[in-house]
Amino acid sequence: MTRHALSTRLWHWLNLACVVVLFMSGLNISNAHPHLYWGDWGFDPRDAWLSVPRFPGWMTIPGHYSLAAARDWHILAAWPFALGLLFIWIAMLANGHFRRDIATGRREWRWAALRADIAAHLRLDFRHRRGGYNLLQRIAYGIVFGILLPLMIATGMGISPGWEPHLHWMIESMGGRQSVRSIHFVAAWALFGFVVVHVALVLLSRPLRQVRDMVTGGRR
Amino acid sequence: MKRRSLLVGLGAAAVAGCSRIADSGPGARALAAAEDWHRKAQRLFAARTALAPEYDRAAISPSFRGNGSLTVDTDAYRASLASGFADWRLNVRGLVRHPLSLSMDNIRRLPQRTQVTRHDCVEGWSAIGEWTGPQLGLILSAAQLLPQAKYVVFRCADRLRGAPYYESIDLIDAFHPQTIVAHRLNGEPLPERNGAPLRLRVERQLGYKHAKYLTAIEAVASLDGIGGGAGGYWEDRGYQWYAGV
């Protein structure tokens, strides 16, 4: 049996491309009005809870300020990103990847286990227990699959006025459109944080084998 | 410092790759098509007449930001503004059986709709205001659209960076119950910076669709040959024609 299912590998690289395009075009869109508000409305930077810096060209798609072109990229990449997430969830549930590798049982949520995992990570000891991910990995992937990725899609749709009639209940429950926009931004940076940690841990734990296995599947 | 230059390098590579895709034929077509997929998906999953949320008057924002053109820089407009737009005309023309020329008085005497709605600018900010005016559908029904009519084009008095502002929507949005020709904001005549004397409200789309300083409504079969051909001032400059995303 391979270490990574074909569905996991295909989705991993497709999703990487989507996230890169969405994040970088999103930073370009942020430059149009780099102020975040809570509530339904907000337009005056003096009312902002956070004003973010202008992101330079090397961080944005396209490489110069163009709200029109950035929105083209953002709106296009949203499709494979959202449909890809739907696909990997169905695949993970069907092939047991979710139940086996990501879901946690109540018995695993013990301080001792968490402390042991954190201590092992701090020692840069990445030997997995047989057959699966450790608790920290399960929590991290669970947050990404269960919260951050769906939240990006839900909040992205929530700030699109054409989806508003369908999603009004969700937008109100998040505190209004400008709150949804703020959450979209915060969740995007949370995902960026995950990517940084994810890549750092790959680099610290036999990076060539890790990347090769995510391409070829590898052996369990 | 090395790590930062690696990140810069990766960023620059992604930017360069995307710019090559955008310049290629299929890449450009996919980028242009994506907004249509969103429009179709939105209309697939809910009634075409689904309403944008309407708020209580208490939710109205303390002021309503003006954006884009904040006035019309002509003597004729200034004179019209000074006279309370007594001479202003809204022409309804194009593919209609009965072309109309409506005065402000005509427009105020039509059945009115008042709605407290949220305005979402493409830049990201929002403001809430109370708008009053007749439904566009009512005006179009009075003019009687010919069967060839597919779009409604809005002609405006303002010019932005030297070019005339205009906009267009399809008939689904034109006959949507919340699509109105507004002449009042928050109970007062429409302020100059918000498009006096008349502006469009098309509540399920972004702000640039809400054309201001309206002078004419034109029913057309195609957007080709109007302005730059993309259906609006900002659309001619690369923005999406469907602004529900």
Automatic annotation (TrEMBL), chain A:
Species per Swiss-Prot/TrEMBL record: Pelagerythrobacter marinus
Stretches assigned to coiled coil: none
Transmembrane segments: 73-94, 139-163, 183-204
Name of the protein: Cytochrome b561 bacterial/Ni-hydrogenase domain-containing protein
UniProt keyword Cytoplasm present: no
Top-level taxonomy: Bacteria, Pseudomonadati, Pseudomonadota, Alphaproteobacteria, Sphingomonadales
Superkingdom of the source species: Bacteria
Membrane-topology annotation of the record: Multi-pass membrane protein
UniProt similarity note: Belongs to the HupC/HyaC/HydC family.
Main location: membrane
UniProt keyword terms in alphabetical order: Cell membrane, Electron transport, Heme, Iron, Membrane, Metal-binding, Transmembrane, Transmembrane helix, Transport
InterPro entries per UniProt: Cyt_b561_bac/Ni-Hgenase (IPR011577), Di-haem_cyt_TM (IPR016174), Hydrogenase_cytochrome (IPR051542), Ni-dep_Hydgase_cyt-B (IPR000516)
Localization per record: Cell membrane
Keyword Iron: yes
Automatic annotation (TrEMBL), chain B:
Pfam families membership: Oxidored_molyb
Gene3D superfamilies attached to this UniProt entry: Oxidoreductase, molybdopterin-binding domain (3.90.420.10)
InterPro entries (alphabetical): OxRdtase_Mopterin-bd_dom, OxRdtase_Mopterin-bd_sf
Boundaries of every Oxidoreductase molybdopterin-binding domain copy: 86-220
Entry-linked PROSITE patterns: PROKAR_LIPOPROTEIN
Source superkingdom: Bacteria
This protein's name: Molybdopterin-dependent oxidoreductase
Organism for this UniProt entry: Pelagerythrobacter marinus
Taxon lineage: Bacteria, Pseudomonadati, Pseudomonadota, Alphaproteobacteria, Sphingomonadales
